[in-house]
C-alpha cells in the first residue's frame, strides 16, 4: 500500500496523475503481480459526489494519514447475504436481555457524527492507528448530510455505547466500521441493521474485506463481478427511511436456524 500505485487506465502514468477521474474503474482487473490487489487508483478528491460515484461501482476509499485517497475494489469481495446472517444463541440472549433493560434503545441516525468519531477512536488489534482519518470523517459526515451515509446505534441510559456506520444507495448497503463499549454491542448494531435490511428487501451488505469476525456472522467471499452486478441491480431500489427504523424481531426470527 505504501508504494505509488499505477493508474489502471494508464491515462497518464501514475494514479496520482489520474486524480480519480478514471472511467475504467469498473472494468479493470488487477493482475496477480500487483503488490496491493484490489487497488485501482489514487486521487485528491473525497467529495460526496465522488463517493457516490465510487460506491455505485463497488469502489471504496481506504488510506492512511499522509497518503493520497486510495480507491479499492477487492476480488473476491466479502459480503453478508442478509438471509445468511448468523444470529448465534449467545447474541439472541444478549439482544433479549438488553431489550428488556430500562433505557436501552436500538435506532438509526440519532447521532451519526458521534458514531463515526467513536469508530475512528476505537482501538484495533494489531494496528497503531486508524484508517478513519479526519478527511474521511469530514467526507462521510457530508455524505450523511446528503442522505447516503447512516448509522445503526445502540444507546443505554442516554449514552451511545455501540454502533456502526454504512453507505446506502437505493437498496445497496455498504458496511464501513463499528465500535462497542459493551459486550456484543457491535453485533447488536449489526443485527439491528440486518433486521431492517430483511424488512426492506436488501439482499446483501458489503463487508469489503475478509475477517474472521465477519465470517463468524455469516459473511462470505464472492467474485467481484458478481458483487458489482448485485450492486447495479440494487441501485434502483426505493430509498430506505432509516431515521424511523428500529430492530425488527420478526425479520430476525425468519432466519434459518433461529430457535
Tell me what the structure shows.
By secondary structure, this protein is an alpha+beta fold. The protein has helices at residues 15-18, 48-55, 89-99, 112-121, 134-145, 185-200, 212-216, 224-234, 249-253, and strands at residues 39-43, 60-61, 69-72, 77-81, 104-108, 149-156, 159-169, 172-180, 204-208, 220-222. The protein is globular, with a radius of gyration of 18 Å.
Short summary of the structure?
With 259 residues, the protein is an alpha+beta fold.
Task: Give the topology, please.
Elements lengths: L14 H4 L20 E5 L4 H8 L4 E2 L7 E4 L4 E5 L7 H11 L4 E5 L3 H10 L12 H12 L3 E8 L2 E11 L2 E9 L4 H16 L3 E5 L3 H5 L3 E3 L1 H11 L14 H5 L6
Parallel strand pairs: 8-9
Antiparallel strand pairs: 1-3, 2-3, 4-9, 4-10, 5-6, 6-7, 7-8
Strand content: 15-25%
Rg from Cα: 18 Å
Q: Could you tell me how far the N terminus lies from the C terminus, measured between alpha carbons in angstroms? A: 44 Å
Biggest sheet: strand arrangement? 5-6-7-8-9-4-10
Low-pLDDT stretches are 1-33
Mean pLDDT: 86
Structural class: alpha+beta
How would you characterize the largest beta sheet? 7 strands, mixed
Gross morphology: globular
Helices and strands, in order, run as HEHEEEHEHHEEEHEHEHH
Number of strands: 10
Percent helix, as a range, is 25-40%
Number of helical segments? 9
